């Protein structure tokens, strides 16, 4: 095995899906552990990877281990697999607040440690993942790790102090914005399904303009705001209600 996942919820499944789609690893090179037999069977059926109910089997089988359990279970899991870990292992944490130093301390031995801060658009191959690593991870080792994160979206390597600013929860705010725009269209008579399509494509296209033109978002906004027009009136209303301040 080349890659192990302890836990396989929404984020773990999204990551594995991207890895398989891009051919980074094959199904028989990935092993996943689940807490329940129901979860194990689901992972086996939907992903086709090797599955187990034994976290230690994952650690014994693979040298790169992703901790894809909920943050409150990290310490328990690391304590459970402690005797199976070696200095050859790389541990990858995806939980906010669990620092590189904390992960190494709880593992109980010197390890290569990496943190990912992925977000849910990874499920459709458009995730934005922040990555940081401790000093034990070589440049070549980090390059191999980045192939994993690049398989389900975009990656930026940042200092650990900026991990909380990476915005893993930001998609929730974008979904709320899409829902609000769709609600407005529905209030004017548009069918709900069509309203979501208009709102979602608008957000998708607008984000693509920022990324592909390299222009400042404020410049792109100004392009749309004609003097005394409806768009600048909408901007005025958003600002009157604290739009940017609320997002901040």
Question: Overview of this structure, please?
Answer:
This protein has 248 residues and is α/β, with parallel strands linked by helices. The chain is built from 11 helices and 8 strands. An 8-stranded mixed sheet has the order 3-2-1-4-5-6-7-8, sandwiched between helices. The N and C termini lie far apart (43 Å).
SSE series: EHEHEHEHEHEEHEHHHHH
Structural class: alpha/beta
> Mind telling me the C-alpha Rg?
21 Å
- Average of per-residue pLDDT values: 95
State the helicity in percent bands: 40-55%
Counting DSSP E segments of at least 2 residues, the number of strands comes to: 8
Number of helices: 11
How far apart the termini lie comes to 43 Å
Summarize the structure.
The chain has 11 helices and 8 strands. It is α/β, with parallel strands linked by helices.
Show the helix and strand layout:
Elements (H helix, E strand, L loop, with lengths): L2 E4 L3 H12 L8 E4 L3 H11 L2 E3 L2 H7 L2 E4 L6 H8 L8 E4 L6 H8 L4 E6 L9 E7 L5 H12 L2 E5 L12 H18 L4 H22 L3 H8 L5 H11 L2 H5 L1
Parallel strand pairs: 1-2, 1-4, 2-3, 4-5, 5-6, 7-8
Antiparallel strand pairs: 6-7
């Amino acid at each position: 095995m080349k890659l192990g996942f302890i836990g396989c919820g929404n984020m773990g499944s999204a990551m594995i899906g991207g890895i398989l789609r891009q051919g980074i690893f094959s199904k028989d090179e990935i092993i996943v552990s689940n807490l329940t037999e129901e979860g194990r069977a689901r992972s086996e059926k939907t992903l086709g990877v090797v599955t187990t109910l034994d976290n230690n089997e994952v650690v014994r089988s693979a040298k790169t281990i992703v901790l894809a359990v909920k943050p409150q279970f990290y310490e328990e899991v690391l304590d459970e697999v402690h005797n199976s870990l070696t200095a050859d292992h790389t541990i990858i944490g995806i939980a906010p607040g669990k620092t590189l130093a904390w992960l190494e301390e709880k593992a109980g031995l010197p390890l290569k440690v990496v943190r990912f801060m992925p977000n849910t658009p990874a499920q459709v191959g458009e995730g934005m993942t922040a990555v940081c690593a401790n000093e034990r991870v070589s440049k070549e080792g980090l390059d191999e790790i980045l192939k994993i994160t690049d398989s389900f979206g975009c990656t930026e390597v940042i200092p650990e102090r900026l991990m909380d600013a990476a915005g893993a929860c930001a998609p929730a705010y974008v979904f709320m914005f899409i829902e609000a725009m769709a609600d407005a269209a529905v209030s004017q008579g548009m069918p709900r399904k069509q309203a979501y399509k208009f709102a979602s494509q608008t957000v998708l296209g607008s984000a693509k303009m920022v990324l592909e033109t390299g222009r400042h978002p404020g410049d792109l906004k100004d392009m749309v705001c004609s003097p005394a027009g409806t768009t600048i009136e909408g901007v005025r209303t958003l600002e009157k209600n604290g739009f940017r301040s609320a997002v901040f």
